[in-house]
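Protocol check, entry for the methods section draft. Step 1: assemble the input record (protein sequence plus ligand SMILES). Step 2: submit for complex structure prediction. Step 3: store the structure tokens unaltered in the notebook. Ligand used here: guanosine-5'-triphosphate. Step 1 record:
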Amino acid sequence: MTNLTSVRVVVLGSKNVGKTAVIVRFLTQRYIGEYRSNTDWLYKHNVTCDETASEVEILDISRWSDDCLPIDEVQSADACVVIYSICDRESFNRAQDCLNIIHRLKAPQYIPVVLLGNKRDLELGRQVSFEDGNELSTQYGCDFSEVSAAGNYAGVNEAFYSLIRQVRTSRHQRSLPRQRKRSIMTVSKVLGAMFGKNSHKDTRKNKQTPCSL
Ligand SMILES: Nc1nc2c(ncn2[C@@H]2O[C@H](COP(=O)(O)OP(=O)(O)OP(=O)(O)O)[C@@H](O)[C@H]2O)c(=O)[nH]1
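Step 3, stored output:
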């Protein structure tokens, strides 16, 4: 009997930013130009990450408005992907709304989130700088990268694998006995005291607590 852990990922973002293209790129390694819109799709796929298989469910939410937020979908998610197009400033503003919604619906619980600036191949049409994306991700304590579903799959894959790893790690930590958890915190405190909290140059790995807005 198979006993795969399941990971539920919700993908949010404006229309036309490439949500479906990114998901299909991750699941099939292919890029298909056009997709039927106006429907929410649920993809189920067995994904092997670090030699461990998981059943990954990816919900592509294509329609939602301020009057009809995907509350149940976000609340039941283990991880979220928020996508904007680097060629569409409005979609970047919408991405900020999405991060806000996730933060409101999930707090104080921690949920792994990645912010993706898609369509990196369309550099000439860029309206959102890398720095803007990075700053927004810092503000909300999530990972960030710019990708191109059309261009290649490496960045897209890495974003999803990173989420799967984070979900596994946080589940593992929740399952540890309390005594063990306490000793892990003690070790990290000792390390913090020895090296200082800000000793790492790359703070992105440590982002977990979104700031209050
Ligand atoms: N150049 C370029 N085009 C892309 C990329 N990703 C998606 N597209 C195109 O952008 C358009 C929208 O892609 P979709 O994947 O349907 O976007 P979506 O966000 O799922 O759209 P909705 O379902 O309407 O919400 C399509 O014409 C894609 O071919 C990319 O990385 N580069």
